[in-house]
Amino acid sequence: MANKGSTKQTVENVGAIFIGILIFFYFIIWPEVLPSHIGSYPTQKQLDQSLMPLNRTVYKVNPLLHTIIYWMPGIYETPHKLVNCVVRDKKNWVGHYLDGSGSVEMHKGKITTEDPNEVYIGKYHWWLLHFKVI
Questions:
Q1: Do both 24 and 40 map to the same domain?
Q2: Which residue in 49, 60, 93, 123 is deepest, having the highest Cβ count within 10 Å?
Q3: For residue 59, which of 79, 34, 88 has the smallest C-alpha distance?
């Protein structure tokens, strides 16, 4: 009978270790390895310094394959691929448009831009502007 109790304890220990590994993988490894979606929320600065929301873009970034796919929900639904991408993680990457018209770069989770009138803001702020709440 003592042997059955010991076996049960071993199974419980293995189960706890397995669950711990799954939790570690899900929260630590998974977000950095698997493709991730990240949105950009651009606005245009008006003459009166108010912000007008522009079309948001969603990027699907795959750090393992160094690929970036993008689309504009509700406007430009067909996904397109950026080329010659360099991807460190989902918040640090650069990719070029297929037609050679330019590139997109994200650094520390923020899209970089050379246009001083184009301002990228947070998701909730953008939605409030979009629905004219503020």
A1: no
A2: 93
A3: 79
Both 27 and 46 in one domain: the answer is no
E-strand stretches of 1-134: 36-40, 42-45, 51-53, 57-62, 67-72, 76-89, 92-96, 103-107, 110-111, 118-120
Q: Could you give the percent of the chain with pLDDT greater than 90?
A: 60
Containing structural domain, residue 78: 35-130
CA dist 132 → 16, 75, 126, 129 (Å)? 50, 19, 10, 5
Sign of the C-alpha dihedral computed for residues 45, 48, 51 and 55 taken in this order: negative
Round to whole Å and give the CA distance between 79 and 81. 7
Residue 22 shares a structural domain with residue 39: no
Distance CA 111, CA 104 (A): 7
Residue in 99, 53, 89, 50 with CA at minimum distance from that of residue 68: 89
